[in-house]
């Protein structure tokens, strides 16, 4: 007992030093854990405000918590005088190995986060991206689900979506219908233009502002082409498109104005 007491007396300064260091390490560990929880909660709230799927928000928040908590452990160990350089090197090597092994998945995950944050489209929008087109049904961490007009389901990796131009047909409330109508060279252009305008004037779904355009755009090989460009609400685009195509054909037939098909004149020369 006397030996132990003597050792304590001789090393009292060192014991107090390590005791203080241990207490400080525990304080760092405790406060760091609270900060990690706080960061996790703030991340989830930020995703909730953007109305992001809860599974995605929870997943990202857990990653934030893990990073902050790992940094807290390293700080606590450093406070105890433990060399943390080797730990950092091991974690770095492990992270690099995992990153290389999951390169494609990480790329899809990063692209999914960008889709969620930048919001180039939302569920229900009709988009064209990565060479595919369809209505967005689900936006998940690694992939996005599209449904085509003929009811096919396309599961697209998020990286292929963010790595290509995205066309969102639903974001704006109005769209322009672009039609090209050809008439024969023997047709009266003023009459043809009047017929096209009469069809548009009878269509109640067309918007008054912006006004529609009917104009000669091209003297083609077999026809004189008119551009017909009315504006409609985005939800009325396809029904109006189909009805206009039918009504224009009927109106031109009633006015005896032909819509020519491509043709070629072949001249034969007889040799004597």
TrEMBL record:
<dbReference type="Pfam" id="PF21082">
    <property type="entry name" value="MS_channel_3rd"/>
</dbReference>
<keyword id="KW-1003">Cell membrane</keyword>
<dbReference type="Pfam" id="PF05552">
    <property type="entry name" value="MS_channel_1st_1"/>
</dbReference>
<comment type="function">
    <text>Mechanosensitive channel that participates in the regulation of osmotic pressure changes within the cell, opening in response to stretch forces in the membrane lipid bilayer, without the need for other proteins. Contributes to normal resistance to hypoosmotic shock. Forms an ion channel of 1.0 nanosiemens conductance with a slight preference for anions.</text>
</comment>
<dbReference type="Pfam" id="PF21088">
    <property type="entry name" value="MS_channel_1st"/>
</dbReference>
<comment type="subunit">
    <text>Homoheptamer.</text>
</comment>
<dbReference type="GO" id="GO:0005886">
    <property type="term" value="C:plasma membrane"/>
</dbReference>
<feature type="domain" description="Mechanosensitive ion channel MscS">
    <location>
        <begin position="105"/>
        <end position="171"/>
    </location>
</feature>
<keyword id="KW-0997">Cell inner membrane</keyword>
<dbReference type="InterPro" id="IPR011066">
    <property type="entry name" value="MscS_channel_C_sf"/>
</dbReference>
<comment type="similarity">
    <text>Belongs to the MscS (TC 1.A.23) family.</text>
</comment>
<keyword id="KW-1133">Transmembrane helix</keyword>
<keyword id="KW-0472">Membrane</keyword>
<dbReference type="InterPro" id="IPR006685">
    <property type="entry name" value="MscS_channel_2nd"/>
</dbReference>
<keyword id="KW-0812">Transmembrane</keyword>
<feature type="domain" description="Mechanosensitive ion channel MscS C-terminal">
    <location>
        <begin position="177"/>
        <end position="259"/>
    </location>
</feature>
<dbReference type="InterPro" id="IPR049278">
    <property type="entry name" value="MS_channel_C"/>
</dbReference>
<keyword id="KW-0813">Transport</keyword>
<dbReference type="InterPro" id="IPR011014">
    <property type="entry name" value="MscS_channel_TM-2"/>
</dbReference>
<keyword id="KW-0406">Ion transport</keyword>
<dbReference type="GO" id="GO:0008381">
    <property type="term" value="F:mechanosensitive monoatomic ion channel activity"/>
</dbReference>
<protein>
    <recommendedName>
        <fullName>Small-conductance mechanosensitive channel</fullName>
    </recommendedName>
</protein>
<dbReference type="InterPro" id="IPR049142">
    <property type="entry name" value="MS_channel_1st"/>
</dbReference>
<feature type="transmembrane region" description="Helical">
    <location>
        <begin position="56"/>
        <end position="82"/>
    </location>
</feature>
<dbReference type="InterPro" id="IPR008910">
    <property type="entry name" value="MSC_TM_helix"/>
</dbReference>
<dbReference type="InterPro" id="IPR010920">
    <property type="entry name" value="LSM_dom_sf"/>
</dbReference>
<feature type="transmembrane region" description="Helical">
    <location>
        <begin position="15"/>
        <end position="36"/>
    </location>
</feature>
<dbReference type="InterPro" id="IPR023408">
    <property type="entry name" value="MscS_beta-dom_sf"/>
</dbReference>
<dbReference type="InterPro" id="IPR045275">
    <property type="entry name" value="MscS_archaea/bacteria_type"/>
</dbReference>
<feature type="transmembrane region" description="Helical">
    <location>
        <begin position="88"/>
        <end position="118"/>
    </location>
</feature>
<feature type="domain" description="Mechanosensitive ion channel transmembrane helices 2/3">
    <location>
        <begin position="63"/>
        <end position="103"/>
    </location>
</feature>
<keyword id="KW-0407">Ion channel</keyword>
<dbReference type="Pfam" id="PF00924">
    <property type="entry name" value="MS_channel_2nd"/>
</dbReference>
